[in-house]
Every structure is written in C-alpha cells, then in structure tokens.
Amino acid sequence: MGLANDLAEKLAIDACETAVALDDESIPEAVAQVVGSSSPTTEELFRTAVRVIQAEARARKFLEDKIRAAEAALPKG
C-alpha cells in the first residue's frame, strides 16, 4: 500500500493547505468524498492523513501559544 499511502498523504497535505489558504475547512471533506467515490481504501488513508495533519497543526499552535505566554511573562529589561 505504499503508493496509495503516499498519494493519499500528498493529497491530504494539498487539501489542508488549500483549506487554510481559502479559509474553508470543508475542503478536506469534499476531497474525501471525491476520492471515496472511486477508492474507499484511498479515502480512509486520506482521512487518516488529514486527521494527523490537523492534529499536528493544533499541537503546534498550542506550543507556540505556550512559548508566547512564557516570553510575555518574562521581566522586561
């Protein structure tokens, strides 16, 4: 399943980047529907990749917010 996984991952990256660029979080779901109409296996791989990408983005934002808060709490001087 190397090829299917690689293609699904690349498509998930593109879909997530497009969703951010267009401020339209429905794009990954729409792409999943298109993919699923011809390949349920690829759809599941795609959905998994999207979940991983979105989870990583949320975790990164959490860490960045923590760092910003810690830096803001440091004494100025």
Offer a few descriptive terms.
77 residues; mainly alpha
Q: Please tally the helical runs, counting DSSP H or I stretches of 4 or more residues.
A: 3
SSE string: HHH
Cα-to-Cα separation, first versus last residue: 56 Å
Radius of gyration: 17 Å
Output the structural class. mainly alpha
Strand content: under 5%
* Tally of strands: 0
Shape: elongated
Q: If you average the pLDDT, what whole number results?
A: 96
What percentage of residues falls in helices of 4 or more residues?
over 70%
Instruction: Please indicate the count of domains.
Output: 1
What composes the largest sheet? none
Low-confidence spans = none
List the helices and strands and how they pair.
Elements: H1 2-22, H2 27-36, H3 40-73
What does it look like?
By secondary structure, the chain is mainly α. It has one domain (2-73). Helices cover 84% and strands 0% of the residues. It has three helices and no strands. It has helices at 2-22, 27-36, 40-73. Helix 1 packs across helix 3 (40-73) and helix 2 packs antiparallel against helix 3 (40-73). The model has no long low-confidence stretch (mean pLDDT 96).
